[in-house]
TrEMBL record:
It comes from Cellulophaga baltica. The lineage of its organism: Bacteria, Pseudomonadati, Bacteroidota, Flavobacteriia, Flavobacteriales. This is Starch-binding associating with outer membrane. Residues 320-525 form the RagB/SusD domain. Its main location: membrane. CDD domains: SusD.
Length: 530
């Protein structure tokens, strides 16, 4: 949204003096009571409310949230390997962590609860402010959405239906309870119920995206809330199959919301899928919720996946490189493969120069191409790319929820319920230029979800976990293509193991360890087995 980063910076400085920024511990489940005069006096004007609401989005662009952070967990999947040797990253992929590593994933949990705290502040204080009812509804809707969105990520990442239970539920009603008094609910189902309740509030309060002016793009809207109700129920359904009907219901609600949700599809599959993954469609009909990004900041996933040092042109980081298994999963005539992955010898444009892909750095012989559209232009730095290579965001809003995923969630729910999921699944296939399938199976769904959403926050790792497929998938090594001359795109290669088979124990590895700092400061029970 326009000027958000400037507003967030000003607000962060301002609230430090009010005790809002540091009123809770790093994990947020240890909360100190508020009530100072400064805090009470803050919630007076429309500007106060707007700044409080805008502060909820600060962590969306944090490097250890939706740039890397949560993506390190997705990197554990069979779709990719860590592109560079990094001990902490390698340990995460090998499920060899305790929560005490102190880097990479250590802030995902506490930062999520900081967002929750800010949302709670809005929900507690805005109803009593003397501002218009329209603004109250808008701000409260945003707060309910951001609270639910944050809980969605920590709930499925760290919570289960046993033996660990869910994650602490902190709302405006109990956020000022004594430090250390928060406990974990018996099941993550309680978290999913809370998330659904919050999102339903957001649905009632938020407008559709198409009613926003351009300077408000990036704020939550009704479709985003509906889509995350569908996804929450999809995850919930692994414990309660009756929730599949809710997935279908809310996926249809997205389609019928009146905002014109649709796939980017002009009957030119290669062009459609290529431009889909670019700034050209940041606010298009398919993008439901993204990390609002730009040359001044945003998700750095775009640069993190770029060739290490960017062939001498830009500071790519060289992480998250596709596996040969992912490359081979695509059907031969699937245009999505070339858009998603660069293979040795593939033509592409980089900084205005026509190149053929080769890499002296990639551990797998591949690179994700999905996020590279903005790197094609001549002299793109400052216009399409961040001027700071240590913060390599682009003007492309990295997607967190696309309409294609909504369709695939509906297809999955229908198939799991013994119904026909052909129509929503084939919409996705046909956009890719592929022939439709009849009487699609869960295997068809798993394939389609893998290739359509490869390298995205849709979360391949958790898909394997919730399907019960992780143990088998991770018992197999990961292959890559090792070229005899990595500087030559025409050199021969051999298919070799680039990551050994791993021992995934579903009895406890269905969740990740809660950071040790959180356990120490809050006193909540750790996840067992780690």
């Amino acid at each position: 949204m326009k000027n958000r980063f400037k507003e967030l910076f000003i607000f962060t400085i301002a609230i430090a003096g009010l005790g809002l920024a540091n009123s809770c511990s790093e994990d947020f489940t240890e909360v100190s009571p508020l009530g100072s005069t400064s805090y009470a006096n803050f919630w007076k004007t429309e500007q106060d409310a707007q700044e409080a609401v805008n502060s909820m989005y600060a962590y969306m662009t944090d490097q250890e949230m939706f740039s890397r952070g949560f993506f390190w967990y997705i990197n554990a999947s069979d779709d990719m390997v860590t592109g560079r040797i990094k001990a902490a990253a390698d340990n995460i992929k090998d499920f060899n962590i305790t929560g005490g590593e102190g880097s990479y994933t250590s802030t995902c949990y506490p930062n999520s609860y900081k967002v929750i705290r800010r949302a709670n502040d809005v929900i507690l204080n805005v109803p009593n402010m003397e501002i218009s009812e329209t603004l109250k509804n808008q701000y409260l809707g945003e707060a309910y959405f951001m609270r639910a969105f944050s809980y969605f990520w920590v709930a499925h990442t760290y919570g289960d239906n046993g033996p660990n239970g869910g994650v602490p539920i902190v709302t405006e009603l109990n956020m000022n309870d004594d430090a250390g008094s928060y406990t974990r609910p018996a099941s993550v189902i309680e978290n999913y119920q809370q998330i659904e309740d919050d999102l339903k509030m957001a649905v009632d309060l938020l407008p559709v995206f198409t009613s926003y002016s351009a300077d408000n793009y990036g704020r939550p809207h009704r479709d985003a809330a509906l889509a995350y109700i569908a996804k929450t129920n999809l995850y919930w359904a692994q414990y309660d199959q009756s929730r599949y009907a809710e997935v279908v219901r809310y996926a249809d609600a997205v389609t019928n919301s009146g905002s014109g949700r649709a796939l980017i599809d002009t009957n030119n599959p290669e062009k459609d899928y290529r431009e889909l993954h670019s700034h050209l469609n940041n606010w298009g009909s398919e993008y439901i919720w993204s990390v609002d990004s730009g040359v001044d900041g945003g998700s750095i996933l775009t640069g993190v996946m770029l060739e290490n040092k960017g062939w001498g042109k830009y500071n790519g980081w060289g992480y998250y490189t596709p596996s040969e298994g992912l490359y081979n999963e695509f059907e031969d005539d699937d245009v999505r493969r070339g858009v998603t992955i660069l293979n040795f010898g593939d033509d592409f444009t980089f900084f205005g120069e026509e190149r053929r892909y080769q890499s002296e750095n990639s551990n797998s012989g591949f690179q994700f191409n999905k996020y590279m559209y903005e790197f094609q232009f001549e002299n793109p730095v400052g216009t399409y790319l961040n001027t700071n290579g240590d913060n390599p965001s682009t003007v492309y809003n990295v997607p967190l929820m696309r309409y294609a995923e909504v369709l695939l969630m509906k297809a999955e729910a229908l198939i799991a319920d013994g119904k026909n999921g052909d129509e929503p699944l084939n919409l996705v296939r046909e956009r890719a230029g592929l022939a439709p399938k009849s009487n699609v199976t869960m295997a068809d769904l798993k394939h389609e979800r893998r290739v359509e959403l490869a390298g995205e926050f849709a979360n391949r790792h958790f898909d394997l976990v919730r399907w019960g497929d992780a143990e088998e998938a991770y018992s197999k090594p990961i292959y890559g293509r090792i070229y005899s001359d990595r500087s030559n795109p025409d050199s021969p290669y051999t298919s070799e193991v680039i990551w050994p088979a791993r021992n995934f124990d579903p009895s406890y590895m269905q969740v990740w360890p809660i950071p040790a700092t959180v356990i120490q400061s809050s006193g909540i029970a750790p996840n067992q087995g780690w």
